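User: I'm writing a short report section on ligand binding and want a predicted complex to refer to. Could you take this sequence and manganese (II) ion and write out the structure as tokens? A short remark afterwards would be nice.
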Amino acid sequence: KCTLESVEMLTSGNSADSSLDLWSRNDVQTCTSWKAPIIWEGMFTPSHYDQIHRNKGSSVALTVFAVGRYLDAYLETFLNSSEQHFMSSLPVTYYVFTDSPELVPNIKLAPNRHLKVIEVERHTRWQDISMMRMKAISDVIESDIRHHATHVFCFDVDQVFTGRFGPEALGDSVALLHAHYYHLPRMLFTYDHNPKSKAFMKTGDFYYHAAIFGGSWRSVKALTEACYRSIMADKENEVEALWHDESHLNKYFWLHKPSRVLSPEYCWDTSIGYRSDIQVYRLLWAPKDYYNLRTS
Ligand code: 2GW
Ligand code: MN
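Assistant: Sure. The structure tokens for the complex follow:
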């Protein structure tokens, strides 16, 4: 049975969790076996989290990559929707990584919110565009973010905020349940099953989605560095994990348990159809045009 003594409370005395009511949802799992909360609608009072994190002086860096055609296809909608819904009560700095800085749209930002553009090279293989995010994120945490923000959240760009995504999502180390797997048995999780890859794992706790992960800047730096090292080791051994960076992320969270887990309400795919346990859409997968985006 869950207790309110989550990993986070024990390790950092995080008073934020005293406003979580793990028993208010009885249709879903609200706590992991290692006592980290899984955040669902109805478990918390939003204004409490706004207040607690404002008092603590929390601030958030959001990293997002828009390389090649993804810039034009998704970035403006992502940023505009984020201005409506992402951490509205806190200072936020966007770190937009792109190969075309001059094409980054001019977004009107609310007070206390900033945007920095970081130029990155455009890898020819899309798998590398995705995987090399780990290195770029750890570098910018080291050079910039750690001096300016308490927390970091890393996002895929092909998504749209549609509801509150607030400080209740902040924690020391935060993972997201993948919308397509949260209700499936473990044996169907698409972990990497090749023993030659550093991402290899036989079993795990959950299948996490790499479209969102976050935490304190220290934790995200440790995570991105570790995943980058594993990705590079695989390259030397001429193997590639089944789902690229997502496989390495799953391995990392198996070895280093997240202190907070987000329900799929935080990243839902409407093509799944109606689910009674999804009570709010906070962020939705944007429709993908694979043919135009993945061929050149
Ligand atoms: C990616 C795939 C195919 C063709 C292009 C790209 C691509 C990705 C690109 O041309 N430019 C670009 O900026 N990206 C960035 O990488 C962008 O931020 C995008 O959201 C992210 C991941 O690619 P995406 O969203 O197409 O992959 P998904 O939605 O299938 O993502 C899951 O699996 C990936 C690994 O294969 C990652 O782990 C990702 O985090 C997962 O959500
Ligand atoms: Mn994506």
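A remark for your report: Helices lie at 7-12, 46-56, 69-85, 126-131, 133-148, 217-236, 245-255, 290-294. The longest helix spans residues 217-236.
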